[in-house]
Write a structure and sequence with these properties.
By secondary structure, the protein is an alpha/beta fold. It folds into 2 domains: about 35 residues; about 260 residues, 4-Layer Sandwich (Metallo-beta-lactamase, Chain A). The chain has 10 helices and 14 strands. A hairpin with a 2-residue loop joins strand 8 and strand 9. It binds zinc ion. The site of zinc ion has 8 residues, from helix 3.
């Protein structure tokens, strides 16, 4: 009898609990649905997040703007980089599309994963130099852009110094290079798209594989290139990151996107010494994995995967 009563009491409580739980679930789903806009994705609450993704030897930088817009600068070496690192990073932050995709230059270690990105992630604008380059990967990349353009799904933008990129009103985006002339040559590194991104008092400089010639060209044009955070060009190769460039940029943090035991000897000891002499804090993707920098426009924080 006692047992029977206790079971009845239990059942009554279970029904109440079930009703409460169901109501909470319905309410919860409603809240989730109503707070998840489709366009654009959730704002970053005034935070700019820049991820220097660890894709081995190459570059891939994912930028999540304070207003919830996304930009990918370069796409690693291969579709594996896209599938295993780039797209999962985008999804991990709750995004499923890219507003801007920038291919700094046509080399494999910068565009190798971009065809897969274009096939799997909707992209609004593809920013590229249009330099002629006849590798299979680059041709596949151009073909995919042209297919998406024809389908009305993407707009290509030819980037030159001064080309405006309407990314997020909270940010200043300056395309510092390339100029017209170098794009006509077959020097891909020195025709890299170089972008200075500023949020409040904090600037980033994204340099692709620019070498001394392109750095000198940018300095010749005049204007401010100062940046607290410098993406060291060309994986720390010795033909870039000159003294004159470092004098002008005056970085506090240097990020080197480089693969462990690469065949190129990147980064060079000269570049590391040059940065160390200036007490620039060096971060390397081969040693620390993906490097994430967040800023509210006044200060910034650096965190590393390893
Ligand atoms: Zn490279």
């Amino acid at each position: 009898m006692r047992k029977h009563r206790s079971l009845a009491a239990y059942s009554w409580q279970a029904v109440v609990a079930l009703v409460v739980l169901t109501s909470l679930l319905i309410l919860g789903c409603g809240l989730i649905n109503s707070s998840t806009p489709t366009q654009p994705p959730p704002p970053q609450d005034g935070t700019l997040t820049v991820l220097f993704l660890d894709i081995g030897q190459g570059d891939s930088i994912l930028i999540l703007s304070p207003g919830g817009y996304t930009m990918l600068i370069d796409g690693g070496n291969s579709s594996r980089d896209a599938n295993e690192v780039i797209i999962p990073a985008l999804h991990a932050y709750g995004y499923d599309e890219l507003d801007f995709l920038v291919a700094t230059h046509p080399d494999q270690d910068h565009i190798g994963g971009l065809v897969t990105v274009l096939q799997k992630v909707p992209v609004r604008y593809a920013v590229l130099t249009g330099q002629e380059h006849t590798t299979q990967t680059y041709e596949a990349f151009l073909k995919e852009i042209s297919r998406l353009k024809s389908a009305g799904q993407l707009t290509p933008i030819k980037a030159r110094r001064g080309t405006p990129l309407d990314f997020d009103p909270a940010l200043k985006v300056e395309v510092l290079a390339p100029g017209d002339d170098v794009v006509e040559t077959n020097d891909t590194n020195n025709a890299s798209i170089v972008i200075r991104l500023t949020y409040g008092a904090v600037s980033f400089l994204f340099t692709g594989d620019a070498e001394n010639e392109e750095e000198a060209w940018i300095l010749d044009q005049g204007g401010d290139v100062q940046a607290q955070i410098l993406k060291v060009s060309h994986h720390g190769g010795k033909t870039g990151t000159s003294e004159a460039w470092l004098n002008a940029v005056s970085p506090e943090v240097a990020v080197i996107s480089v693969g462990a035991d690469n065949h190129y000897g990147h980064p060079s000891s000269q570049v590391i010494e040059r940065l160390a002499r200036r007490k620039v804090k060096i971060y390397r993707t081969d040693q620390q994995g993906t490097i994430t920098i967040t800023t509210d426009g006044s200060g910034y924080q650096v965190s590393t995967e390893k």
